[in-house]
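Supplementary Note 3. Input sequence used for the single-chain structure prediction.
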Amino acid sequence: MKVIYVVGLGPGDPKALTLRALSVLKHQRQIYVRTAQHPSLALLAKHRIKYKALDYFYRHGSSFEETYRNIAFFVINAALNFGKVVYAVPGSPLFAEKTVELILQKAPLAGVKCCVLPSVSFLEAISADLCLPREEKLQVVDALQEDKLLDYPEKHLLIMQVYNRQIASKVKLRLMELYPDEQLVKVIRKAGMAKGKKILELPLYELDRIPWIDHLTTVYVPPLTEYAMTDLLQVMRVLRSENGCPWDKEQDHQSLKPYLLEEAYEVIGAIDSGNAEELCEELGDLLLQVVFHSEIAAEEKKFSFFDVITAVTEKLIRRHPHVFADTVAKTSQEVLHSWQQIKKAEKKEQDSLFKLETYLPALLRAQKLQRQAASVGFDWPDITGAWGKLQEELKELKDAYKSGLAARIEEELGDVLFATVNVARFLQVDAEQALAAAVEKFYRRLRFVEAQAQREGTEMSAQTLSKLDEWWDLAKKKEKS
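The predicted structure, written as discrete structure tokens, is reproduced below.
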């Protein structure tokens, strides 16, 4: 039988090597180590155990991913040639070892059995040196997986594989997208070893200035925040539980509808205000509504919050093939066209791509329907056609007014509004927000005129129209000054 014995060399101290691992190393001839840059190899030299280091692949690989892949296939081929081989790696073989992961995946396909010998990992050594909390509050991340570095701000973060200052610089820049520049971090080298161990605390922005960073270096980042998404979900479960809040327990999807709408509009208000603190709070309130509805659905065994996350993540990946696949889309228009085609393919059972969403306000409904029509080519070539249509609808409204027919006037006024929304779309202006801003502006000026009348000890209704116009013009001037 062809076998690969996968052995862990421990975190660095030769004394951490297990007796079982040492026994296997003594009784096998074909021994490969991922890298010669590890202190535990001194014990192999002491016992005159010969081995071949695979650092060659690091020197000639164009990326770490390629290097790991080449090492894995080399070890598997060695097992096919020699029957039994040992592959030794730093730390524990089942802890953050990409080459081992690849070997365990691919070796069985080649008819090679894998026998893994557990060992002490670097995590135990570092946890002891830094007095870190239990595993549920601890997260280990590979420095080479930059996309994962910002995913766990609520946890104690251990960043391994910080091989050199170049990698440290990339880690620093990535972390500084979320963590403060002055965030204190700890850098530990040769964790768990009696000699040569170094621990240094310093601000994040100085991380890549340490001259002694090497392959035995790990970076520790303390939690940035106290709570995570799981905490919010747990709070909601408590509120809905038997001993929770009476009001929260009474709610259902229907009763929460007004609050969902209200919170959405409050987010828009916060955006318009430009107040970041207010926006942060209102986004939290809106997120709470999503969690609330998800918890109700979970209680009814329909879906959970995690189903919501899964569905929207899959949808984003599926509808962005120009990012996650091989499709090319260089402009926003090409993206929108692709999006509509994918939606159409997803909903083959529907007889139409278009949907009249009556629950939306009329302006939003008009905008969305016009965008859908434009996405399939039913649109004016440019804004000239939209301007002409608006002028045409205004003329028809005037004719309807002259006719005195109320139903016709209402219809033509609706056409004018619809044509106006179309012009707004060509101007890349959100009609709903534009109207909201106009209403707000009218309100401010009206309040100014009212205040002027009150200063004179009268009501607006007691003033002449010319006087009200005078104050109105004054309000406009003050806004422009």
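The CA atoms of residues 134 and 335 lie 46 Å apart. Strands lie at 3-8, 31-33, 52-53, 84-89, 113-117, 138-142, 156-160, 184-189, 198-203, 217-221.
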